[in-house]
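Session log. Operator J.P. requested a structure for one protein chain; no other inputs attached. Running the standard single-chain path with C-alpha coordinate output.
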Amino acid sequence: MFNDLSEKLQGVFKKLKRQGMLSEQNIKDSMREIRMALLEADVNYKIVKNFIKAVEERCLGQEVMISLTPGQQVVKIVNEQLVSLMDTGGFNMDVFDNKLTTVMLVGLQGSGKTTACAKLANYYRKKKIRPMMVACDIYRPAAVHQLQVLGKQINIPVIYDDSNEVTKIAAKALKEAQRDMTNLLLFDTAGRLHIDENMMQEIYDLKKQIKPDYILFVADSMTGQDAVTVAKQFNEKMDFSGVILTKLDGDARGGAALSIKAVTGKPVVFVGMGEKVSDLELFHADRMASRILGMGDVLSLIEKAEETFDEKEAEKLAAKMKKNQFDLNDFLSQLQQIKKMGPLDSIIKMIPGMNTKMLKDTKIDEKQLAHIEAIIKSMTNRERAKPQVLNGSRRKRIALGAGRTVQEVNKLLRNFEDMKKMMKKMTNPKFAKQFKGLGM
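Structure written below.
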Protein backbone atom coordinates (compact mmCIF):
# COMPACT_ATOMS: atom_id res chain seq x y z
CA MET A 1 0.00 0.00 0.00
CA PHE A 2 1.26 3.48 -0.99
CA ASN A 3 4.77 2.10 -1.64
CA ASP A 4 5.34 3.90 -4.95
CA LEU A 5 3.66 7.09 -3.73
CA SER A 6 5.71 7.10 -0.50
CA GLU A 7 8.97 6.54 -2.36
CA LYS A 8 8.28 9.34 -4.85
CA LEU A 9 7.19 11.84 -2.17
CA GLN A 10 10.23 11.02 -0.05
CA GLY A 11 12.41 11.63 -3.13
CA VAL A 12 10.83 15.07 -3.64
CA PHE A 13 11.31 16.01 0.02
CA LYS A 14 14.93 14.80 -0.01
CA LYS A 15 15.71 17.25 -2.83
CA LEU A 16 13.94 20.10 -1.03
CA LYS A 17 15.77 19.50 2.24
CA ARG A 18 19.11 19.86 0.45
CA GLN A 19 18.20 23.44 -0.54
CA GLY A 20 19.31 26.14 1.91
CA MET A 21 16.63 28.44 0.54
CA LEU A 22 13.64 27.69 -1.68
CA SER A 23 12.76 29.70 -4.76
CA GLU A 24 9.39 29.97 -6.43
CA GLN A 25 10.72 27.84 -9.29
CA ASN A 26 11.91 24.84 -7.23
CA ILE A 27 8.65 24.89 -5.25
CA LYS A 28 6.71 24.75 -8.55
CA ASP A 29 8.98 21.94 -9.80
CA SER A 30 8.37 20.00 -6.57
CA MET A 31 4.60 20.52 -6.86
CA ARG A 32 4.73 19.14 -10.41
CA GLU A 33 6.47 15.97 -9.13
CA ILE A 34 3.97 15.59 -6.25
CA ARG A 35 1.08 16.06 -8.72
CA MET A 36 2.43 13.26 -10.94
CA ALA A 37 3.00 10.98 -7.92
CA LEU A 38 -0.61 11.45 -6.75
CA LEU A 39 -2.07 10.88 -10.22
CA GLU A 40 0.02 7.72 -10.62
CA ALA A 41 -1.33 6.57 -7.23
CA ASP A 42 -4.80 6.76 -8.85
CA VAL A 43 -6.02 9.75 -6.85
CA ASN A 44 -8.98 11.58 -8.44
CA TYR A 45 -7.57 14.28 -10.77
CA LYS A 46 -9.90 17.03 -9.43
CA ILE A 47 -8.77 16.25 -5.90
CA VAL A 48 -5.12 16.33 -7.00
CA LYS A 49 -5.67 19.73 -8.64
CA ASN A 50 -7.22 21.23 -5.48
CA PHE A 51 -4.63 19.55 -3.23
CA ILE A 52 -1.65 20.92 -5.20
CA LYS A 53 -3.23 24.38 -5.38
CA ALA A 54 -3.67 24.50 -1.58
CA VAL A 55 -0.14 23.21 -0.88
CA GLU A 56 1.48 25.54 -3.42
CA GLU A 57 -0.31 28.62 -2.05
CA ARG A 58 0.95 27.87 1.45
CA CYS A 59 4.47 27.04 0.24
CA LEU A 60 4.78 30.29 -1.74
CA GLY A 61 3.63 32.29 1.27
CA GLN A 62 5.80 33.57 4.10
CA GLU A 63 5.18 30.30 5.99
CA VAL A 64 7.96 28.62 3.94
CA MET A 65 9.89 31.35 2.13
CA ILE A 66 11.26 32.95 5.31
CA SER A 67 11.58 29.69 7.26
CA LEU A 68 14.99 28.56 8.56
CA THR A 69 14.11 24.99 7.52
CA PRO A 70 12.08 25.44 4.30
CA GLY A 71 12.29 21.78 3.26
CA GLN A 72 10.84 20.63 6.59
CA GLN A 73 8.10 23.26 6.34
CA VAL A 74 7.00 21.87 2.95
CA VAL A 75 6.82 18.36 4.43
CA LYS A 76 4.73 19.75 7.31
CA ILE A 77 2.33 21.47 4.87
CA VAL A 78 1.92 18.36 2.69
CA ASN A 79 1.29 16.29 5.82
CA GLU A 80 -1.39 18.72 7.07
CA GLN A 81 -3.10 18.81 3.66
CA LEU A 82 -3.12 14.98 3.48
CA VAL A 83 -4.70 14.81 6.93
CA SER A 84 -7.30 17.37 5.85
CA LEU A 85 -8.02 15.35 2.68
CA MET A 86 -8.73 12.15 4.64
CA ASP A 87 -10.12 13.74 7.82
CA THR A 88 -12.88 11.71 9.47
CA GLY A 89 -14.43 14.84 10.97
CA GLY A 90 -14.55 13.24 14.40
CA PHE A 91 -16.87 10.46 13.18
CA ASN A 92 -17.10 7.55 15.60
CA MET A 93 -19.21 4.39 15.33
CA ASP A 94 -20.61 4.22 18.86
CA VAL A 95 -21.65 0.76 20.08
CA PHE A 96 -22.83 0.38 23.68
CA ASP A 97 -23.06 -2.64 25.97
CA ASN A 98 -26.56 -1.77 27.24
CA LYS A 99 -28.50 -1.36 23.97
CA LEU A 100 -28.76 -2.85 20.47
CA THR A 101 -26.90 -1.17 17.59
CA THR A 102 -27.76 -2.29 14.04
CA VAL A 103 -25.30 -1.96 11.16
CA MET A 104 -25.77 -2.69 7.45
CA LEU A 105 -22.80 -3.55 5.24
CA VAL A 106 -23.35 -2.69 1.58
CA GLY A 107 -21.23 -2.75 -1.59
CA LEU A 108 -20.48 -4.59 -4.80
CA GLN A 109 -19.82 -8.31 -5.07
CA GLY A 110 -16.18 -9.19 -4.39
CA SER A 111 -15.48 -6.11 -2.29
CA GLY A 112 -15.02 -8.25 0.84
CA LYS A 113 -18.31 -7.53 2.66
CA THR A 114 -18.68 -10.97 4.24
CA THR A 115 -15.11 -11.02 5.59
CA ALA A 116 -15.47 -7.39 6.71
CA CYS A 117 -18.64 -8.37 8.60
CA ALA A 118 -16.71 -11.03 10.57
CA LYS A 119 -13.77 -8.66 11.16
CA LEU A 120 -16.11 -5.99 12.50
CA ALA A 121 -17.83 -8.51 14.81
CA ASN A 122 -14.44 -9.67 16.10
CA TYR A 123 -13.22 -6.05 16.55
CA TYR A 124 -16.17 -5.10 18.78
CA ARG A 125 -16.19 -8.40 20.66
CA LYS A 126 -12.69 -7.47 21.90
CA LYS A 127 -14.32 -4.36 23.35
CA LYS A 128 -16.69 -6.51 25.47
CA ILE A 129 -19.60 -6.09 23.02
CA ARG A 130 -21.91 -9.04 22.19
CA PRO A 131 -22.16 -9.17 18.36
CA MET A 132 -24.36 -11.26 16.08
CA MET A 133 -24.09 -11.57 12.28
CA VAL A 134 -26.99 -11.84 9.84
CA ALA A 135 -26.60 -13.61 6.47
CA CYS A 136 -28.73 -11.52 4.08
CA ASP A 137 -26.76 -12.35 0.92
CA ILE A 138 -29.19 -14.91 -0.51
CA TYR A 139 -27.87 -14.76 -4.08
CA ARG A 140 -24.14 -15.40 -4.10
CA PRO A 141 -23.38 -19.14 -3.95
CA ALA A 142 -21.86 -20.16 -0.60
CA ALA A 143 -22.17 -16.61 0.86
CA VAL A 144 -24.24 -17.87 3.80
CA HIS A 145 -21.89 -20.80 4.34
CA GLN A 146 -18.85 -18.48 4.26
CA LEU A 147 -20.34 -16.29 7.00
CA GLN A 148 -21.26 -19.37 9.05
CA VAL A 149 -17.69 -20.72 8.77
CA LEU A 150 -16.25 -17.34 9.84
CA GLY A 151 -18.76 -17.15 12.69
CA LYS A 152 -17.71 -20.59 13.91
CA GLN A 153 -14.02 -19.58 13.81
CA ILE A 154 -14.57 -16.61 16.10
CA ASN A 155 -17.48 -18.11 18.06
CA ILE A 156 -20.04 -15.49 17.01
CA PRO A 157 -23.63 -16.56 16.12
CA VAL A 158 -24.90 -16.22 12.54
CA ILE A 159 -28.63 -15.84 11.81
CA TYR A 160 -30.15 -17.26 8.63
CA ASP A 161 -33.58 -18.46 7.50
CA ASP A 162 -34.29 -21.17 4.90
CA SER A 163 -37.08 -19.06 3.39
CA ASN A 164 -34.47 -17.16 1.33
CA GLU A 165 -36.41 -13.95 1.97
CA VAL A 166 -34.37 -11.03 3.27
CA THR A 167 -37.29 -9.50 5.22
CA LYS A 168 -37.93 -12.79 7.07
CA ILE A 169 -34.23 -13.23 7.84
CA ALA A 170 -34.06 -9.67 9.20
CA ALA A 171 -37.20 -10.14 11.35
CA LYS A 172 -35.76 -13.36 12.78
CA ALA A 173 -32.44 -11.64 13.51
CA LEU A 174 -34.07 -8.72 15.37
CA LYS A 175 -36.09 -11.17 17.46
CA GLU A 176 -33.03 -13.32 18.26
CA ALA A 177 -30.96 -10.25 19.13
CA GLN A 178 -33.54 -9.05 21.68
CA ARG A 179 -33.80 -12.52 23.21
CA ASP A 180 -30.03 -13.04 23.33
CA MET A 181 -29.31 -9.51 24.66
CA THR A 182 -27.06 -8.81 21.68
CA ASN A 183 -25.40 -5.36 21.54
CA LEU A 184 -24.39 -5.32 17.87
CA LEU A 185 -26.32 -6.75 14.92
CA LEU A 186 -24.37 -6.84 11.64
CA PHE A 187 -26.28 -7.37 8.37
CA ASP A 188 -24.19 -8.81 5.52
CA THR A 189 -26.22 -7.77 2.46
CA ALA A 190 -26.08 -9.03 -1.14
CA GLY A 191 -23.66 -7.51 -3.62
CA ARG A 192 -23.76 -7.39 -7.41
CA LEU A 193 -21.22 -7.09 -10.21
CA HIS A 194 -22.59 -3.58 -10.81
CA ILE A 195 -25.30 -1.30 -9.39
CA ASP A 196 -28.81 -2.28 -10.50
CA GLU A 197 -32.27 -1.12 -9.46
CA ASN A 198 -33.48 -4.47 -8.06
CA MET A 199 -30.46 -4.71 -5.78
CA MET A 200 -30.84 -1.13 -4.55
CA GLN A 201 -34.58 -1.62 -3.93
CA GLU A 202 -33.95 -4.73 -1.82
CA ILE A 203 -31.32 -2.95 0.28
CA TYR A 204 -33.55 0.12 0.58
CA ASP A 205 -36.46 -2.08 1.80
CA LEU A 206 -34.14 -3.73 4.33
CA LYS A 207 -33.03 -0.29 5.50
CA LYS A 208 -36.69 0.74 6.08
CA GLN A 209 -37.36 -2.50 7.98
CA ILE A 210 -34.40 -2.56 10.39
CA LYS A 211 -33.76 1.23 10.62
CA PRO A 212 -29.95 0.78 10.97
CA ASP A 213 -27.93 3.03 13.23
CA TYR A 214 -25.10 2.89 10.69
CA ILE A 215 -24.69 1.89 7.04
CA LEU A 216 -21.10 1.06 6.07
CA PHE A 217 -20.04 0.90 2.44
CA VAL A 218 -17.38 -1.77 1.85
CA ALA A 219 -14.95 -0.85 -0.95
CA ASP A 220 -12.09 -2.85 -2.44
CA SER A 221 -9.11 -0.47 -2.43
CA MET A 222 -7.44 -2.55 -5.17
CA THR A 223 -9.98 -1.18 -7.67
CA GLY A 224 -8.75 2.40 -7.15
CA GLN A 225 -10.97 5.11 -8.65
CA ASP A 226 -13.63 2.52 -9.57
CA ALA A 227 -14.21 2.05 -5.84
CA VAL A 228 -14.63 5.81 -5.44
CA THR A 229 -17.10 6.04 -8.36
CA VAL A 230 -19.23 3.18 -6.98
CA ALA A 231 -19.08 4.71 -3.48
CA LYS A 232 -20.44 7.99 -4.85
CA GLN A 233 -23.34 6.19 -6.58
CA PHE A 234 -24.17 4.16 -3.46
CA ASN A 235 -24.06 7.25 -1.27
CA GLU A 236 -26.50 9.10 -3.55
CA LYS A 237 -28.98 6.24 -3.19
CA MET A 238 -28.33 4.98 0.35
CA ASP A 239 -26.70 7.91 2.22
CA PHE A 240 -24.27 5.62 4.05
CA SER A 241 -22.46 6.60 7.26
CA GLY A 242 -18.89 5.68 6.42
CA VAL A 243 -16.55 3.41 4.50
CA ILE A 244 -14.60 0.22 5.19
CA LEU A 245 -11.64 -0.03 2.80
CA THR A 246 -10.52 -3.64 2.29
CA LYS A 247 -7.22 -5.09 0.99
CA LEU A 248 -5.20 -2.01 1.93
CA ASP A 249 -2.28 -4.34 2.72
CA GLY A 250 -1.99 -5.39 -0.94
CA ASP A 251 -0.59 -3.61 -3.97
CA ALA A 252 -3.23 -0.88 -3.80
CA ARG A 253 -1.84 2.42 -5.04
CA GLY A 254 -3.82 4.29 -2.38
CA GLY A 255 -6.01 6.43 -4.62
CA ALA A 256 -9.25 5.22 -3.05
CA ALA A 257 -8.09 5.99 0.50
CA LEU A 258 -7.04 9.51 -0.52
CA SER A 259 -10.10 10.29 -2.69
CA ILE A 260 -13.15 8.68 -1.12
CA LYS A 261 -13.81 11.30 1.60
CA ALA A 262 -13.46 14.24 -0.80
CA VAL A 263 -15.77 12.64 -3.40
CA THR A 264 -18.52 11.25 -1.12
CA GLY A 265 -18.22 13.51 1.91
CA LYS A 266 -18.22 10.35 4.05
CA PRO A 267 -15.16 9.23 6.03
CA VAL A 268 -13.19 6.02 5.92
CA VAL A 269 -13.97 4.37 9.28
CA PHE A 270 -12.08 1.08 9.13
CA VAL A 271 -9.36 -0.43 6.94
CA GLY A 272 -8.67 -4.12 6.29
CA MET A 273 -4.92 -4.75 6.61
CA GLY A 274 -4.74 -8.51 6.00
CA GLU A 275 -6.66 -11.72 5.44
CA LYS A 276 -7.05 -12.73 9.10
CA VAL A 277 -10.26 -11.90 10.98
CA SER A 278 -8.17 -9.82 13.39
CA ASP A 279 -6.72 -7.67 10.58
CA LEU A 280 -9.05 -4.69 10.88
CA GLU A 281 -7.89 -1.26 12.01
CA LEU A 282 -9.69 1.91 12.98
CA PHE A 283 -8.80 4.55 10.40
CA HIS A 284 -6.86 7.60 11.59
CA ALA A 285 -6.17 10.27 8.94
CA ASP A 286 -3.10 11.66 10.74
CA ARG A 287 -1.54 8.21 11.16
CA MET A 288 -2.21 7.28 7.53
CA ALA A 289 -0.62 10.54 6.36
CA SER A 290 2.45 9.76 8.49
CA ARG A 291 2.74 6.33 6.88
CA ILE A 292 2.43 7.79 3.38
CA LEU A 293 5.21 10.31 4.09
CA GLY A 294 7.48 7.64 5.59
CA MET A 295 7.24 9.05 9.13
CA GLY A 296 6.02 5.77 10.62
CA ASP A 297 3.04 5.26 12.88
CA VAL A 298 4.18 4.79 16.46
CA LEU A 299 0.70 5.08 18.02
CA SER A 300 -0.74 2.22 15.90
CA LEU A 301 2.36 0.14 16.64
CA ILE A 302 1.90 0.67 20.40
CA GLU A 303 -1.81 -0.19 20.16
CA LYS A 304 -1.02 -3.41 18.27
CA ALA A 305 1.58 -4.35 20.87
CA GLU A 306 -0.81 -3.61 23.76
CA GLU A 307 -3.49 -5.81 22.17
CA THR A 308 -1.05 -8.66 21.57
CA PHE A 309 1.35 -8.71 24.52
CA ASP A 310 0.30 -9.71 28.02
CA GLU A 311 1.39 -7.06 30.55
CA LYS A 312 2.24 -9.55 33.33
CA GLU A 313 4.21 -11.74 30.92
CA ALA A 314 6.09 -8.66 29.69
CA GLU A 315 7.05 -7.79 33.30
CA LYS A 316 8.27 -11.35 33.90
CA LEU A 317 10.29 -11.22 30.70
CA ALA A 318 11.87 -7.87 31.67
CA ALA A 319 12.90 -9.35 35.02
CA LYS A 320 14.46 -12.40 33.30
CA MET A 321 16.33 -10.17 30.87
CA LYS A 322 17.69 -8.13 33.76
CA LYS A 323 19.01 -11.32 35.40
CA ASN A 324 20.28 -12.63 32.03
CA GLN A 325 17.93 -15.64 32.32
CA PHE A 326 16.26 -15.17 28.91
CA ASP A 327 16.07 -18.60 27.22
CA LEU A 328 14.73 -20.13 24.01
CA ASN A 329 11.30 -20.73 25.60
CA ASP A 330 11.02 -16.96 26.11
CA PHE A 331 12.32 -16.33 22.61
CA LEU A 332 9.68 -18.67 21.12
CA SER A 333 6.94 -16.98 23.16
CA GLN A 334 8.01 -13.52 21.90
CA LEU A 335 8.21 -14.78 18.33
CA GLN A 336 4.63 -16.08 18.51
CA GLN A 337 3.43 -12.77 19.98
CA ILE A 338 5.09 -10.79 17.17
CA LYS A 339 3.42 -13.02 14.56
CA LYS A 340 0.03 -12.16 16.07
CA MET A 341 0.66 -8.46 15.41
CA GLY A 342 0.37 -9.03 11.66
CA PRO A 343 2.68 -9.15 8.61
CA LEU A 344 6.23 -8.10 9.47
CA ASP A 345 6.57 -5.64 6.60
CA SER A 346 3.45 -3.73 7.73
CA ILE A 347 4.79 -3.61 11.32
CA ILE A 348 8.21 -2.35 10.18
CA LYS A 349 6.56 0.41 8.11
CA MET A 350 5.15 1.81 11.37
CA ILE A 351 8.67 2.41 12.70
CA PRO A 352 9.80 6.02 12.08
CA GLY A 353 12.82 6.26 9.79
CA MET A 354 12.09 3.00 7.96
CA ASN A 355 11.56 4.58 4.55
CA THR A 356 10.18 2.79 1.49
CA LYS A 357 13.58 2.44 -0.22
CA MET A 358 15.08 0.75 2.84
CA LEU A 359 12.17 -1.70 2.93
CA LYS A 360 12.56 -2.39 -0.80
CA ASP A 361 16.24 -3.20 -0.33
CA THR A 362 15.48 -5.48 2.65
CA LYS A 363 13.54 -8.58 1.71
CA ILE A 364 11.33 -9.70 4.59
CA ASP A 365 10.68 -13.42 4.33
CA GLU A 366 7.86 -14.44 6.70
CA LYS A 367 8.85 -18.10 6.16
CA GLN A 368 12.05 -17.52 8.11
CA LEU A 369 10.00 -16.99 11.27
CA ALA A 370 8.20 -20.29 10.66
CA HIS A 371 11.58 -22.04 10.19
CA ILE A 372 12.93 -20.59 13.46
CA GLU A 373 9.75 -21.64 15.26
CA ALA A 374 10.03 -25.18 13.84
CA ILE A 375 13.65 -25.48 15.00
CA ILE A 376 12.89 -24.34 18.58
CA LYS A 377 9.81 -26.60 18.77
CA SER A 378 12.00 -29.57 17.79
CA MET A 379 14.00 -29.07 21.00
CA THR A 380 13.10 -30.54 24.38
CA ASN A 381 12.14 -28.19 27.24
CA ARG A 382 15.56 -28.77 28.83
CA GLU A 383 17.34 -27.88 25.57
CA ARG A 384 15.35 -24.67 25.24
CA ALA A 385 16.09 -23.72 28.85
CA LYS A 386 19.81 -24.61 28.55
CA PRO A 387 20.98 -24.24 24.93
CA GLN A 388 24.56 -24.94 26.09
CA VAL A 389 23.73 -28.70 26.21
CA LEU A 390 23.15 -28.76 22.46
CA ASN A 391 26.04 -30.85 21.14
CA GLY A 392 26.51 -32.05 17.56
CA SER A 393 24.20 -35.08 17.73
CA ARG A 394 21.40 -33.09 19.39
CA ARG A 395 21.67 -30.36 16.73
CA LYS A 396 21.46 -32.99 13.98
CA ARG A 397 18.32 -34.49 15.59
CA ILE A 398 16.71 -31.02 15.91
CA ALA A 399 17.47 -30.21 12.26
CA LEU A 400 15.87 -33.48 11.09
CA GLY A 401 12.83 -32.90 13.32
CA ALA A 402 12.33 -29.37 11.96
CA GLY A 403 13.05 -30.27 8.33
CA ARG A 404 15.90 -27.71 8.27
CA THR A 405 19.71 -27.97 8.00
CA VAL A 406 22.24 -28.21 10.85
CA GLN A 407 23.72 -24.93 9.56
CA GLU A 408 20.37 -23.18 10.16
CA VAL A 409 20.24 -24.59 13.71
CA ASN A 410 23.79 -23.33 14.34
CA LYS A 411 22.95 -19.90 12.91
CA LEU A 412 19.87 -19.58 15.15
CA LEU A 413 21.90 -20.48 18.26
CA ARG A 414 24.67 -18.01 17.34
CA ASN A 415 22.14 -15.22 16.79
CA PHE A 416 20.43 -16.08 20.08
CA GLU A 417 23.73 -15.87 21.98
CA ASP A 418 24.55 -12.52 20.34
CA MET A 419 21.13 -11.22 21.33
CA LYS A 420 21.63 -12.35 24.94
CA LYS A 421 24.97 -10.52 25.07
CA MET A 422 23.32 -7.36 23.77
CA MET A 423 20.52 -7.66 26.37
CA LYS A 424 23.08 -8.11 29.14
CA LYS A 425 24.91 -5.00 27.95
CA MET A 426 21.71 -2.93 27.79
CA THR A 427 20.68 -3.87 31.34
CA ASN A 428 24.15 -2.95 32.68
CA PRO A 429 23.99 0.30 34.76
CA LYS A 430 27.20 1.55 33.05
CA PHE A 431 25.50 1.26 29.67
CA ALA A 432 22.51 3.29 30.96
CA LYS A 433 24.90 5.97 32.30
CA GLN A 434 26.59 6.24 28.90
CA PHE A 435 23.23 6.99 27.27
CA LYS A 436 22.37 9.45 30.00
CA GLY A 437 25.64 11.25 29.34
CA LEU A 438 24.71 11.55 25.68
CA GLY A 439 21.43 13.21 26.65
CA MET A 440 19.27 10.24 25.62
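Operator note: Residues 434-440 have pLDDT under 50 and may be disordered.
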